[in-house]
Amino acid sequence: MNYHQEIKQLLEAKKYQELISYLEDNIEDISQNQLSVNLFWDVIPQLLLVEREKALPLLRKGINFVNNIDECVKKLDHVYQLSKSKFPDFSIQLLELCIKIKPNDLYLEKNLTWHYLLLEDYQQALTLAQQIYTKADNLGLKVYLHYLIFEVITAGGMWDILPPYLEEFKINLYKTIESQVAPRFIEDVFVSITPPLIAREDNLSQNRFLQNQIAKLFTKETRAKYSSLILSLSKQTQVKKDNIKSTKKLKIGYISSAFRHNPVGYLSRWLLKYYDRDKFEVFIYLMSDYEDEITQQWFFKNATKYRKFPVANITEIVNQISQDELDILVDLDCLTNHRTSQVMTFKLAPIQASCLGLDSTGIPTIDYFIADSFVLPDNAQTYYQEKIWRLPNCYLAVDGFESGTPRLLSKVDGIVNEDAIIYWTIQTGWKKSEKSLRLQLKILKQVDNSYLFIQCNGNDKSIKKIVEQEGVDVNRIKLLPFVPLLNYRANFFLTNILLDNYPFNGATSTLDALWLNIPLVTRVGEQFHARQGYTFLKNLGITEGIAYTDEEYIQWGVKFGTDEELRKKVYWKLRQSKKTSPLWDAKQFTRDMEKAYQQMWEIYVSKQIKKESVEHE
């Protein structure tokens, strides 16, 4: 029987269910012929994408006759990567079958751990991560596995077992830096390994040293991996020298995976709305296959040109951006997307800068990190690889936020009484802060008829345990699941006071609350993420709620809860700020950014002129 012809005909006709039935009926015969086996493994990934539930049983039978283990697993992993977010239950079954085909594969086991984390099965994720750690036979792998365990512990709120892992994680990071060998298992994502540490320790000198050194090693490894591409780019750059002019229409490129309903998307969209079309061309580089109406209406519609890179082909991405001949390339992801970080190591524009996302990457090929007078302390330049470019106003601004109708919570629904004081905080993933939660509970104990609403996605039991330890009635704590952004913003209407976390402040969520005139209590630290609330309040002209110690944090929380006049005073200040504050003036923010770009370009041109004059002497 000609299995090949029948299979191809059914596939071309898109008769997928009929094809699955045909393969199941003839599976034994197909397994006896090498060519048929090869065709089966070409077809099964396609079937898994279009007929997930029906194709899985067929795959279970097929794993008994694998022709090329590595190639088969690679194909199935591609299906997993495309399916993991939308179809988590299907994806975990697929991963488990991959592990049956290739037992003890660290890459697959690592993905399975992440998937348990995605499903919020924290205990299973921790058990598997610890099992993998016992097999680690090199320093780089141990660093990554510590990071993985760290993610699981913090997401699951298992704070009591965190300290020893945290200390060993730091020790192994220092050892890796000393060895000057990037972990082979994670060389592509190594640059993004420190954020969970930043969320635990407000130590500017330590955290920036680690990030800068890791970024340096990451850059070296990435450029070595793509050395032939680097060589071809250097030849192209020599041809483009005529493009250096002090006055010209500047080409600005923004690169990110988050031009959509996402904090970075919400904050950066104003740069596309208000940019000066006479002086600038704006290129958008989308490093993702996720798009929505914000992508289309705010970014693609307003850009001079836009490029989409849904697949991780670094060579293709780099060549395209190089051909666009940008003057300035701006990384808006900042540690939140490893492909963006890889691209930034190629120096695809004379000037490279970064902002939004998280703290700066420390990548040596990035020239500037956008900040302001408050979000980094005066001595911060000592600890940054990039030149800190401080804008005259806040390092970001918005014209406001959309919000839905507050349906999730309502005082009149009997959740709390009508006169209750509602404190709100957000405890998510590795940004959770046990210390902040304990301070917030101390505030609650001193304010009668008050409740703490916690928006979280972690282990509810861990939070309840701390509540009990602090002697607070658990009925005064409301654990809220994550809801779509528009809904959670709407629920801020029911909030009296927002309690910020430390040492990893909120950013977009804090802006949401301030936009809705909700007083903020924020603890000021020394690193970028510990000064978000501080710079927002300073740019609003508000000092009430700024705490420099834990004691002040508690004091402000209690004052806001017990003093209605204070709440009203700050409420009216926030209302008035809509007319005067640079934080709510995205057009002026865009002008500030454009002026910065022009000044950066002038500095660059001046240096090039001096360089050429020296060469001609």
From TrEMBL:
Pathway: Protein modification; protein glycosylation
Keyword annotations of the record: Glycosyltransferase, Repeat, TPR repeat, Transferase
Protein name: O-GlcNAc transferase C-terminal domain-containing protein
Pfam families, A to Z: Glyco_transf_41 (PF13844)
Gene Ontology terms for molecular function: glycosyltransferase activity
PANTHER family for the chain: PROTEIN O-GLCNAC TRANSFERASE, UDP-N-ACETYLGLUCOSAMINE--PEPTIDE N-ACETYLGLUCOSAMINYLTRANSFERASE SPINDLY-RELATED
Domain O-GlcNAc transferase C-terminal intervals: 237-399, 416-593
InterPro entries on file: Glycosyltr_41/O-GlcNAc_trsf, OGT/SEC/SPY_C
Organism: Cyanobacterium aponinum (strain PCC 10605)
